[in-house]
Amino acid sequence: MNIEIRDRALEARIQKQIQATGAGSVEEVLLRLLETQEEQDRWLLENRDANNAKIQRGIEQLDRGEGIPEDRLDAYLTELKSKPE
Question: Domain coordinates of the chain in residue numbers?
Answer without folding.
Answer: 8-82
